[in-house]
């Protein structure tokens, strides 16, 4: 499964991984009140299962290469955003020299 993702031959500088306990994600999804039909406990748990089976192996692959930057996503949104900025901003500075800006 992981090889399917990696056949693009694109090597990321880093991979962001928003680390949050399933219980917390479940609580947040169920309380977001967006009226989505798929915001129910059964569908949410299926999404978690799909993530564990298909996406987590990709994260683990890049983690073995030292490219994963983990962010504690159980914290408040503002703190998570500050963590993302601290990781992305230095990379953004590198890219500016090439005429591309990430944000």
Automatic annotation (TrEMBL):
Listed EC numbers: 2.7.4.3
At the top level, the lineage of the source is Eukaryota
Which Pfam family name is an example for this entry?
Answer: ADK
Q: Which residues form the signal peptide?
A: none
Keywords for this protein: Kinase, Nucleotide-binding, Transferase
Q: What class of enzyme is it?
A: transferase
Q: Which InterPro entries match?
A: Adenylat/UMP-CMP_kin, P-loop_NTPase
The GO molecular function terms of this record are: AMP kinase activity; ATP binding
Family label: Belongs to the adenylate kinase family.
Record's protein name: adenylate kinase
Q: Which organism is it from?
A: Morus notabilis
């Amino acid at each position: 499964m992981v090889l399917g993702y990696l056949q693009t031959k694109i090597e990321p500088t880093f991979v962001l991984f928003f680390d949050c306990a399933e219980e917390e994600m479940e609580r947040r999804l169920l309380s977001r009140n967006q009226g989505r039909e798929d915001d129910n406990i059964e569908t949410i748990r299926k999404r978690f299962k799909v993530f564990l089976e298909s996406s987590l192996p990709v994260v683990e692959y890049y983690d073995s290469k030292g490219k994963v930057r983990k962010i504690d996503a159980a914290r408040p949104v503002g703190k998570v955003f500050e963590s993302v900025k601290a990781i992305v901003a230095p990379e953004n500075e590198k890219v500016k020299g090439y005429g591309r800006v990430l944000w």
